[in-house]
Amino acid sequence: MTINRRDLLAASAGIVAASGLGKFGMTPAFAQGAEPKYTPEAGASLRLLRWTPFVQGDEDAWLANTKKFTEATGVEVRVDKESWEDIRPKAAVAANVGSGPDMVMCWFDDAHQYPDKLVDMTDLATYLGDKYGGWYEGMRGYAVRDDKFIALPLAAIGNAVVYRDSHMKAAGFNEFPKDTDGFLELCKAMKAKGTPAGFPHGKAVGDGNNYAHWLLWSHGGKMVDESGKVAINSPETIAAINYAKALYETFIPGTESWQDINNNRAFLAGQVSLIANGVSVYYAAKKDPALAEIAADIRSTNFPIGPVGQSVELHQTSSLLLFSHTKYPEAAKAYIKFMMEADQMNSWIAGASAYCCQPLKAFASNPVWTADPIHAPYARASETLRPNGYAGPLGYASAGVMADYVLVDMFAVAVTGQMTPEEAVEQAEKRANRYYRV
Fold first, then answer.
1. Which residues contact 89 (CB under 8 A, 6 or more apart)?
2. Cα(55)–Cα(157) distance, rounded to whole angstroms?
């Protein structure tokens, strides 16, 4: 039986509206403590800053749930959106000047850059965690500081390899390689056939960071050790850079300037046949009749395993943070609680069509994850992600290093020949030490 996206969303939304968790096969234990009650302040209105959606159903479902909240409470919620690259600086400005949006869908460990500017939401996080099977540990780490929830985990946007099946086979491969050596040979063969790969070495918040961290970790490198001491200058890092240089030679020209939108555009334009992306590129192809051939040819898989011998991937993560400068903290917490409850969360996950992976374990049974084979590599993003601060603790330093694109830049200057691998590593080490002061 073929399930199209419209059928999937209609069915999922109907199930959710009818019975919440029951039809999803979930039987969560309800909160051990009292459910927190938030009474919106008189005349309250809220403003949320969120990232521009790559899957329209994500925004549509979010806005529909927001409308339900307003109808139930009378609290108007203005939802603004910015490009992925602009969310981080705009959130930082709001935190520092003490005005602007009440809430932000932030990236990775951004909340750790200004924890004293955020409302403690531990009571709400405890309630939701108890009720819905617990938080995924990796996502929880992004939102917790000193045992307090300075934000609420919202979603992991899974990143996977997306490729043209017919082009892979034309390059002489019947199956997608499972290791990095085989992956490099595939990319060489696809370039020879005029159907190259492309991975971003530009300052792409999602795809650039995901790719750079996979390159490093798959070869056993790490930015810092368990104590938070900078450990990027290592033989493993040099090996990762040399591998990246070999891959870069197979890419379409110009990937050193790519941001998050560029690989989508290049893939859908037929300029490249292998990228790393969220499921959004698949749905962009499906909704355009002119791209029907590409949509039917798309396959997805997880990143290959490198010399380290295990799957190690960074996935884009987003948390909801609430600024202490808000005039209406009770209304804001009521809104966040409403959006995280089963009816709303399940309809949003379904609406996003496997683009947004749940932060709470109970929602892993949402039928969206088994509705299409293309969704499979994205289904466990929240469970399998490795935090960007690995192997040290998350905090101001890890957030600063990522926001400053230290790792992304290290690979970019090396693969483009601006620096030798050794020079690139030394530069990254110096930059990282500005944040990880010991």
1. none
2. 11
CA distance 269 to 267: 5
Q: Are 65 and 23 in contact (CB under 8 A)?
A: no
CA 244 centroid distance within chain:
22
- Count Cβ atoms within 10 A of the Cβ of residue 31 and give its class: 0-12 exposed, 13-18 middle, 19 or more buried: middle
Q: What is the pLDDT of residues 296-336, one digit of tens each?
A: 999 999 999 999 999 999 999 999 999 999 999 999 999 99
Is the CB of residue 347 less than 8 Å from the CB of residue 23?
Answer: no
The amino acid at residue 143 is A
- Taking CA atoms, 206 is separated from 90, 318, 326, 408, 432, in Å, by 17, 11, 28, 11, 20
pLDDT for 31 beyond 80: no
Dihedral pair phi/psi, residue 7, rounded to 5°: -60, -40
Domains of the chain by start residue, with CATH: 45-158+315-384 (3.40.190.10), 160-313+404-435 (3.40.190.10)
Query: What's the DSSP call for residue 28?
Result: P
CB count, 10 Å around CB of 343?
17
| Token code pair at residue 243 | 């591998």
In this prediction the pTM is 0.87
pLDDT in tens, 234-285: 999 999 999 999 999 999 999 999 998 999 999 999 999 999 999 999 999 9
Contact 30, 130 (CB under 8 A): yes
